[in-house]
Write a structure and sequence with these properties.
CATH superfamily of the largest domain: Lipovitellin, beta-sheet shell regions, chain A
Shape: elongated
CATH architecture of the largest domain: Roll
Strand content: 35-45%
Helix content: under 10%
Number of domains: 4
Keywords: Signal
CATH class of the largest domain: Mainly Beta
Radius of gyration: 35 Å
Number of strands: 46
Number of helices: 9
């Protein structure tokens, strides 16, 4: 059933059209084409349980009219451009090499189809060119794509209605709900024994193509039985040139009632200047699995009246080299954070192939960002004794009225108007938000709002309310967005690799010693005594000049106690561990006290080098100014130098590829293209080890703990 409806949603774009005045059939010009973005939200489970499985399908498909014959048959080519399937944390996408080679080849070559002028449905379907397809798969796809779609002519007259059959649902009533000079809007309502359908679509009168459609199906398996299951799906589809977002995740269970806001609106401020909206700083492209989260910050002085944005013309780069990966993105939203506001969108790679290498190499994703400033204004409703109120201003209307089980607030305005609500402080009002044309009463608020994509009044909302008493006032903030962008800027969203390679970006702080820097010789203290062990931790630079032992021998079971040296080249630290000479005993409960002597030929001091750091970019360090050559190992560098930030934390080095630097690799592995090495953070000083002092001896009187008494419950 899912597959049938998936292909139905793709083909609904290719069926209706204009054949003659006031009658819609599919009658396109040869050479015309449409590319459609499709999102399917699916949920299934037992009807009496809150648990459900959720799946999501995304696709891009291009339809091209290639010819017509004298009998009116229309030839088309169908090109699947991308397909993705999400189920929980598992994402399958043709853009990530998840399509088998033979299927990928078929998708790239596309399919040919013929539309019958009598039935308005597919008459034939086959792979294009020399591509071959298993007969079973071909038959299945032909059956799916061959389902008759809208097998009737549509009369261009508001209120006109007819009844037909759509896949899985008989007796579907199609109604013309609105007619404009450019478009015809349809609604679909139908039900069969186990399935009900509610949908809307908008058809372009001039071109004959479906521009946008939304269909919601609810299917019951074993209806009425104790083990009744449901399958619910909403199919949203739009021409890729459509400016409207496709709602996903439409079914989220039984609708909840939400507390309506009671806080007052913020003060209306003037729209910011373009340079405040686009301060010129690059944005971020944070990769999460198979998507990017794109975000860019606005100047904090831009305040809250940011406006709205649209992203288009995406390009992926590795430095100056453009990569071929294409993207689709969600409608951006602007959210507060970090003392200002950020605009955020989700971008998904699309295509047929494997873009993983491109994403690993990418340094930035660029997009043209349109900015539509807002001019907000406020309306106030004051319900009368009958619980009714209405107000209109600047093309916005708001109506409040009682219903059988509460109240309804109807809002309507210009296409991109956005409405905010505020009820009096202390009000206990709960609500659910539907599209203004909520249609079938079995649709949830989210499913209803998904239909806005193909409704004549995109901004229209119906807010269903429950309250013990009628509110004295209802304030409505209208965000009135400009109809055309006031500015368009190209924004570069840098990837993690892009930020890492950018010399102007401060690297994320990473300490050289994650567990704390080893103490200086004069601050050395024993460690591990709480467990009757004994060890000392020193910088390897210092430990090379030291030897540890006992003042007097203290044998244990015929074995001498000695210090084992354990060097960690990765952090440049050395641990001196007390143990028996056979290495077996490392804990000494109840052992007699011992005196440890650590003799050092010299005490290493850390002195600041004369090489100056760049005040603007102190993380960039020229190793030649330190006298460090490219063949010096990372271990040797860490023993000789410390890059210290303002808090005194020694910083690690950054590798160009972002991986940890092995201690036996040379400094060449840490060199960036500009010849610098980079500190992982913002160093304030560079220190160099100085081993020029006199010998130093440290003595420690060590007392080991007694063996713990066994617990009472363990005896």
């Amino acid at each position: 059933m899912i597959e049938r409806r998936f292909w139905f949603a793709l083909l609904v774009a290719a069926i209706p059209g204009v054949a003659k005045a006031e009658t819609l059939i599919f009658d396109p010009t040869v050479g015309s084409e449409r590319t459609y973005h499709l999102e399917i939200s699916m949920a299934s489970g037992f009807s009496d349980s809150s648990f459900r499985d959720n799946q999501f399908v995304s696709a891009l498909t291009r339809f091209a009219v290639t010819g017509r014959d004298d009998d009116g048959e229309i030839s088309m080519d169908v090109f699947p451009l991308w397909f993705a399937y999400d189920e929980g944390s598992r994402v399958t996408s043709t853009a990530f090499g998840d399509a088998p080679d033979d299927l990928a080849a078929l998708m790239r070559a596309g399919f040919s189809a013929t539309i019958d002028p009598e039935s308005h449905g597919l008459k034939d379907f086959a792979p294009r060119g020399d591509a071959e397809m298993p007969q079973a798969m071909l038959t299945q796809m032909r059956d799916q794509l061959g389902q008759p779609i809208l097998p009737v002519e549509i009369e261009v007259e508001k209120g006109w209605t007819t009844t037909t059959t759509l896949p899985g649902v008989a007796d579907v009533e199609i109604t013309v709900t609105s007619v404009t000079p450019d478009a015809v809007f349809l609604s679909y309502e139908g039900a069969s024994v186990d399935t009900r359908l509610s949908g809307v679509s908008v058809l372009a009168r001039e071109s004959g193509w479906v521009e946008r459609s939304v269909m919601t199906y609810d299917t019951r398996i074993n209806p009425g039985a104790d083990d009744e299951r449901f399958s619910r799906q909403t199919i949203a589809m739009a021409n890729t040139e459509s400016p409207f977002p496709l709602y996903t995740h439409a079914f989220r269970g039984e609708p909840e009632w939400h507390d309506m806001p009671t806080f007052p609106f913020s003060t209306i401020v003037m729209p910011p200047e373009p340079d405040m909206v686009f301060p010129g700083k690059p944005g971020e492209a944070d990769r999460h699995g198979k998507t990017y989260t794109l975000s860019f910050a606005h100047d904090p002085a831009a305040a809250s009246n940011i406006g709205r944005f649209a992203l288009h013309d995406f390009h992926l780069f590795d430095g100056e080299t453009e990569l071929p990966t294409q993207f689709v993105a969600t409608l951006p939203v602007t959210v507060p954070g970090d003392g200002g506001f950020r605009t955020v969108s989700r971008a998904r790679p699309v295509g047929i192939g494997d873009v993983r290498d491109d994403l690993e190499r990418a340094t930035a994703l660029t997009a043209d960002v349109d900015w539509y400033p807002a001019e907000p204004f406020t309306l106030t409703l004051r319900p009368d004794a009958d619980g009714k109120a209405s107000v209109s201003r600047n093309g916005v209307s708001a109506k409040f009225r009682p219903t059988d089980d509460g109240y309804a607030l109807l809002l309507s305005g210009k296409t991109w108007d956005f409405f905010g609500l505020s009820f009096p402080e202390g009000s206990d009002v709960k609500g659910q938000i539907y599209a203004a044309d909520s249609s079938a009463d079995w649709l949830t608020p989210a499913e209803s709002q998904a239909r806005r994509l193909a409704l004549p009044d995109y901004s229209g909302l119906k807010v269903v309310l429950k309250a013990e008493t009628v509110p004295d006032t209802i304030d409505i903030r209208v965000e009135r967005y400009a109809e055309t962008p006031a500015a368009t800027r190209t924004v570069a969203f840098r990837t993690e690799r892009g930020k890492r390679l950018d010399p102007d970006t401060e690297p994320e702080t990473r300490p050289l010693y994650p567990d704390g820097a080893p103490p200086a010789l004069d601050a050395l203290t024993p460690e591990g005594l709480d467990l009757a062990a004994l060890r000392f931790r020193l910088a390897t630079t210092q430990a090379k000049h030291c030897a540890a032992g006992l003042d007097e021998p203290a044998p244990l079971a015929g074995h001498d106690l000695v210090f084992e040296t354990q060097a960690d080249e990765g952090t440049g630290t050395t641990t001196l561990q007390l143990q028996t000479d056979d290495g077996i005993r490392t804990h000494f409960y109840g052992h007699e006290p011992v005196t440890v002597v650590i003799d050092c030929e010299t005490a290493v001091a850390w002195r600041e080098v004369t090489a100056a750091l760049d005040p603007a970019r102190p993380w960039l360090i020229d190793p030649e100014t330190l006298g460090a050559d490219h063949i010096m190992t990372i271990s040797a560098f860490n023993e000789r130098f410390r890059l210290v930030d303002a808090e005194g934390t020694a910083l690690a080095l950054v590798a160009p590829d972002g991986t940890p630097l092995p201690p036996d690799h040379t400094l060449a592995a840490a060199l960036f293209e500009d010849g610098h090495i980079r500190a992982a953070g913002r160093p304030e000083r560079i220190l160099e080890a100085d081993a020029g002092s006199d010998p130093v001896t440290r003595r420690f009187e060590i007392r080991f703990p007694d063996l713990p008494e066994p617990r009472e419950d363990a005896r």
